[in-house]
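Dear H.,

Thanks for agreeing to be a second pair of eyes. The structure we're designing against is below in token form, covering all 360 positions.
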């Protein structure tokens, strides 16, 4: 195909954003194009996209300037700051927009979601979960919606637990408006996250699609309350399909917002959540926490990015071969060998039959 000259050179982030603005280019096709053309600017010289190039790049540049003005971080899927748990999922966004200091690759991330019509009991369960999670240095994730979501974020702010609010629109269009008072408190030690640029308003379609990010960046998802249908169950389905741990708080049989969570348990899509310790034990996090209490000097090592990536993968998968770990973590094999040796010496992992590894 004939190439066409580009009139302007833009910062790399502009081409990254522009890739998402190209017609008929979604996450899968975008990754293929990025693998074929390491210099993204070359994509916009292709005959197939040359007519759209000027308009798309102009719009992407406007987005870039808005992000600079609003101090929004642009995370391309090949960046180290992009959530590594999310990166390898087939439908993960090519670009994410982030505000706030929390590390999206923190050692432990748990999503907590539920109905917008939260009961007092559901809110209390949420608060109790946050207070229990505080001692275990877990980052809690939710969708900033009414009900259980905002109860989670509010409790995190009050208990100084980092929380990530995943929005269905850009940061200039906070929805629902009454939750806007929680934005700045969340940003103190948490983050706002969205696949939509700051000036893009939310639409009905964005909300269910947004839930794949909540599930994808988390090691586990807890469903506090859910009706027979709704966003919480969509998040649970994403988490289940991504091979993440799913927990559901069992509910009274005569309450409508117990139907969904009880169905998850009955269909073996979710484990029963009765306390924070259920989750800690199922994810094998309790042993790590106990070991840190006995050996506080290990704390810094556990939170290095590459070691966290390896531990998170083993938390999720249970057991992986050396080659699978290298592929999934994208760590150089020589570096990975040293990391595995160090984690084994720390008593965190152990070899299995063949060349596999699992948590102790």
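And this is the sequence the design step returned. I haven't edited it by hand at all.
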């Amino acid at each position: 195909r004939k190439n066409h000259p580009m009139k302007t050179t833009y910062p790399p982030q502009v081409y990254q954003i522009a890739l998402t603005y190209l017609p008929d280019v979604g996450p899968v096709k975008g990754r293929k194009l990025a693998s074929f053309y390491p210099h993204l600017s070359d994509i916009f010289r292709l005959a197939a996209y040359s007519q759209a190039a000027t308009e798309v790049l102009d719009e992407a540049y406007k987005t870039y300037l808005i992000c600079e003005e609003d101090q929004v971080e642009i995370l391309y899927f090949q960046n180290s700051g992009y959530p590594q748990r999310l990166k390898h999922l087939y439908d993960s966004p090519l670009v994410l927009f982030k505000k706030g200091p929390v590390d999206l690759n923190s050692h432990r991330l748990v999503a907590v979601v539920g109905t917008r019509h939260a009961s007092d009991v559901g809110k209390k369960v949420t608060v109790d979960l946050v207070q229990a999670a505080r001692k275990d240095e877990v980052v809690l994730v939710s969708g900033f919606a009414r009900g259980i979501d905002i109860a989670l974020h509010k409790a995190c702010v009050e208990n100084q637990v980092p929380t990530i609010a995943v929005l269905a629109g850009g940061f200039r269009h906070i929805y629902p408006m009454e939750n806007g008072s929680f934005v700045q408190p969340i940003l103190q030690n948490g983050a706002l996250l969205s696949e939509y640029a700051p000036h893009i308003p939310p639409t009905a379609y964005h909300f269910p699609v947004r839930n794949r990010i909540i599930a994808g960046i988390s090691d586990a998802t807890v469903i506090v309350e859910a009706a027979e249908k709704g966003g919480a169950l969509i998040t649970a389905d994403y988490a289940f399909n991504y091979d993440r741990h799913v927990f559901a708080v069992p509910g009274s049989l005569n309450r409508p917002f117990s139907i969904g969570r009880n169905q998850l348990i009955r269909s073996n899509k979710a484990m029963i959540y009765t306390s924070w310790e259920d989750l800690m034990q199922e994810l094998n996090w309790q042993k790590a926490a106990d070991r840190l209490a006995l050996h506080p000097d290990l704390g810094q090592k556990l939170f290095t990015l590459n070691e966290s990536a390896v531990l998170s993968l083993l938390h999720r998968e249970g057991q992986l071969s050396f080659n699978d770990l290298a592929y999934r973590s994208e760590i150089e094999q020589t570096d990975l060998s040293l990391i595995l040796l160090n984690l084994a010496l720390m008593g965190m992992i152990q070899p299995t039959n063949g060349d596999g590894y699992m948590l102790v």
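Two observations from my side: Residues 1-5, 299-303 have pLDDT under 50 and may be disordered. Residues 47-70 form the longest helix (24 residues).

Warmly,
E.
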